[in-house]
């Protein structure tokens, strides 16, 4: 559906792609040399790194300079840095490589600017590093950014620095940005050359011949329930990777299905950008009953289980999900 609002989507797209590209360069550089003491544990025991903080500060500051009236929902804040001046200085130094005149207080302020509660209205959604465990393993991670207006994602980008540009050449050149604009389709950009081309989901209409993708970490989603659904569909072994790169590989047709069945409601920063790009590429993203996801509920999407498909096999997957949806959650492994 074409966008009929007041935002300049071309300008928004330009800024979003540029800032995600910068964050990819920043996070990739940190990934190569990250130290043990630059990794912290959150209250839920998930890791957060100096790169998460630097990425959010960089993106948050640039967006605020360009669009000061638009608030942001971000995964991180500056509380840990305010308690650790040495770590705060390290974060600031990384951001200064891209914004030379930024002060430490501006870095901390940019981080805290991600405290918007979401809901109705217009706001950015940022995951500065999605897939932190993959980042720490020197594997897949993504910088995920989108703009939401009254529950609709208008522009989105997934920066995937370690993802092969050509899925047929897994050992070839890496580093791409997936881009979606409401009503304008989706594309993939090579980070190093800036070359861009349109992408679309796979044409597979037989689920038994399709490839599915899931999280590498079983703690993020239920590999057991995924296996039950895949078995019912006659699918083979999954492709596994960290982060919203999984939405990207569905959007470009490398996989036809991404299953994400968890115990707790999904955070909006883990879903919104990738889901929109899949839909703009011709796919479909719903919960296990076929309902569209809601991005106006706050900082979560209100459901724990969802999947993205190429659209052609979506009803087959919904039918296979029904028994799993009715069954016990004891298979969460």
Question: Can you give a write-up of this model?
Answer:
It is an enzyme of class 3 (hydrolase). Its cofactor is Mg(2+). Its EC number is 3.1.3.7. InterPro entries: DPNP, Inositol_monoP_metal-BS, Inositol_monoP_superfamily, Inositol_monophosphatase-like. This is 3'(2'),5'-bisphosphate nucleotidase. With 333 residues, this protein is of the alpha+beta class. It folds into two domains: 191 residues, Fructose-1,6-Bisphosphatase, subunit A, domain 1 (Fructose-1,6-Bisphosphatase, Chain A, domain 1), CATH 3.30.540; 125 residues, D-Maltodextrin-Binding Protein, domain 2, CATH 3.40.190. It is built from ten helices and 14 strands. The chain has a seven-stranded mixed sheet, sandwiched between helices. It has a five-stranded mixed sheet with strand order 11-10-12-14-13, sandwiched between helices. It has a two-stranded antiparallel sheet with strand order 1-2. Helix 2 crosses helix 4, helix 7 packs across helix 10 and helix 8 runs parallel beside helix 9. The longest helix has 25 residues. The protein is globular and about 55 Å long.
């Amino acid at each position: 559906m074409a966008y009929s609002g007041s935002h300049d989507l071309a300008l928004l797209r330009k800024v979003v792609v540029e800032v995600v590209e910068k964050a990819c360069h920043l996070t990739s550089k940190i990934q190569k040399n990250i130290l043990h003491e630059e990794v912290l544990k959150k209250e839920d025991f998930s890791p957060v790194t100096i790169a998460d903080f630097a990425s959010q500060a960089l993106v948050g500051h640039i967006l605020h300079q360009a669009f000061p009236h638009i608030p942001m929902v971000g995964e991180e804040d500056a509380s840990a840095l305010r308690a650790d001046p040495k770590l705060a200085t390290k974060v600031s130094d990384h951001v200064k490589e891209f914004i030379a005149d930024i002060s430490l207080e501006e870095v901390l302020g940019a981080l805290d600017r991600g405290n918007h509660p979401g809901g109705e209205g217009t706001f950015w959604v940022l995951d500065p590093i999605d897939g932190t465990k993959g980042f720490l393993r020197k594997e897949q991670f993504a910088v995920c950014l989108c703009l939401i207006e009254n529950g609709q994602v208008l522009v989105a980008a997934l920066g995937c620095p370690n993802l092969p540009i050509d899925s047929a050449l897994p050992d070839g050149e890496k580093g791409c940005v997936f881009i979606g604009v409401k009503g304008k389709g989706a594309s993939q950009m090579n980070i190093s050359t800036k070359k861009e081309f349109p992408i679309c989901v796979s044409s597979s209409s037989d689920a038994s011949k399709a490839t599915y993708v899931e999280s590498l970490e079983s703690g993020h989603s239920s590999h057991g329930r995924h296996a039950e659904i895949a078995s019912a569909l006659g699918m083979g072994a999954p492709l596994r990777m960290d982060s919203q790169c999984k939405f990207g590989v569905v959007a470009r047709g490398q996989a036809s299905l991404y299953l994400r069945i968890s115990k707790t409601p999904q955070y909006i920063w883990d879903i919104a950008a990738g889901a929109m790009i899949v839909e703009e590429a011709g796919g479909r993203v719903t919960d296990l009953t076929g309902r569209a996801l809601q991005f106006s509920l706050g900082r979560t999407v209100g459901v724990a289980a969802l999947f993205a498909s190429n659209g052609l096999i979506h009803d087959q997957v919904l039918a296979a999900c029904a028994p799993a949806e009715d069954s016990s959650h004891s298979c969460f492994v």
